[in-house]
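User: I'm curious what two different proteins look like when written out as structure tokens. Can you demonstrate?

Assistant: Sure. I'll show them one after the other, since each token string lines up with its own sequence. Here's the first protein:
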Amino acid sequence: MNGYIIEKYTDMKNAYTSRRFAEEGRKAGLNMSIVGVYDVIDTGNGLIFNGRPLSPAKIVINRHKYGNLKDRLAELGEVSVNSAEVINKYVDKSRQRGLTSSAFTHPKSLLAYAGTEFEKIVSAIGLPFVAKGLCGSQGNMVYLIENTEQYEEVCTKFNGEELLFQQFIDTSFGKDVRMLSVRGEVVGCMQRTAKSGFKANFALGADVTKYTADSDIKQAARDIYTQTKADILGIDLLFGKDGYVFCEINVTPGIEGIETACGVNAAGRIMGLIK
């Protein structure tokens, strides 16, 4: 069976997650080719990839979050993981505020435009607070705001765009929990600890160690799957004073940190599910 791994660029054979999917796909009898959206043209009558028409495929794995071309590519697959509908909805962090579970609480939050009066934000969620771009990833659009000067810098950067402002959970400074959920089952769970600063993203160099998936973590994975129907999810939880606090979900999660920290074959589990 043939399939596509949708990425930003075609030349991503050394990208850990896509490489592992291709490796484990071959073991499962799936020939997975990487297709970069930047090398695709939609003529209105079909998709052209590097000068040639793209044929339908059994499987499409979505590893790119943005734009219309990734949606057109997803339509080529009899099976699409995650679906374009799921990605398009939950790539927006403001849409994630509606996810609920008895296993976690939500921080206070506001959806507002950059430039909203500083005092209004502080009165609603406190100071310091976190400002997030709605569609950022790997921590690249997340800022800790401690004063008006820092807030003004962020407002200048986003120039009137919508931002998600969240209460800062100081008990989780520089650390969080990331679990990899496959249809609501926890495949691996790790604690990420920043070497410096408050952001604990693996992509930013955070240390990762295996973390026991307790009953609350397992319940959170089941509840979020029930609500999103996302086949594969990275779920991030913060350490609150009285339990876990929801941070965000990632609809195209990498697996390097989980495989490294937990010693699990996450790619094999995912490709087995897909087959």
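Here's a second, unrelated protein for contrast:
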Amino acid sequence: MTLNIMAMNKPVSKSVVVRKKQQTDLVLDDDSVKTWIKQSNNVTNMMADYNVIQMRILVIVMEAMQEAINGNINHHNSAQLELFQNDIDRYGKITIAVPMKNFGVKSNHYAELRSALETFSKISVQFKVDSPYAGKNATKYTHLMDVTIPEKYQKSVVFNIDKDIAEKFLNVQGGFTKFLKEVVFALDSPYNIKFYYMCCSWLAKGGWSMKMEDLREWLCIGSKYKEFKDFNRRILKPTQENLEKNANCWFEYKPVFVDGEKQPRRIDFKIFRNAMTVEEEKYFNSHVQNMKTLMFTHFQIGDADFNKILPLLTLYNVEKATEKLMDLFIYLQEHADEIINKKEYLMKSLITYLDPRL
């Protein structure tokens, strides 16, 4: 099977809907252990015919790279450089060692995990690259990483990743996805996990849309479920129900048909999420208050103007909004002589950044 990077379609709605969820099998209250993982959208949007265990394996690798990923998100390239300098083997590959117990598989299921690791290492991947020999937008075919599997459960699995593949994992120029590891490990279908990633990725936008052919390709279903009624019954409906029951965000969907056609041209997805926990509310309010204070202190932006921005802020974009605000401060300082109305420029720039309709 192959894996590829795919550009997703545009958002379809302005804001995410907050809704009280029904009783769930996965309890994530204020006292629950919550492990937030950030991964490049290169990983979120890629196509791969992984089973559930293999998708969890990739999550474990992403977790091991969090320091470097966060460094890139915060524009601190030193974290990435440290990873490349300190953990490179003699063949120039990044080395990541993960104890067997970290995969969430008990020792009596070691054989199943070993088999999944072996297959995981053999899956071919595709990346679009610019090559001095093959030209622009060429396709590079390679494998994701080498895996060294221990004979005993008590030891560690060793992943060796080519530097250019690691850079794809760490590249957040196209954005990143923030999701809960505990949710991924609670889901029991590759479709559930893929759609969960997509909900997390588009959460700040409130929804997304995909052409039917792109959706089928992304899910790696080949010729299965050709009739939409079968595709809906076997994939969309059970996945929607599973995420609503077991995840912190989920989707509802609407197939868009053209008159006379039996297959929809596209599917529009609307994202829903739980109300914020006490912990999340404190995190959100802290960022909002910080933004409000900075904007008033430096540009005398009061409540009336700030309230134009507040409805656009969510738990999932408030950190990015704060970073954008700091970038704008620096830009306005460097171009102080060129921009007459700095307050108006700041407001317009921030609203344009946060509002998907603009």
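A detail about the second structure: The first strand starts at residue 17 and ends at 18.
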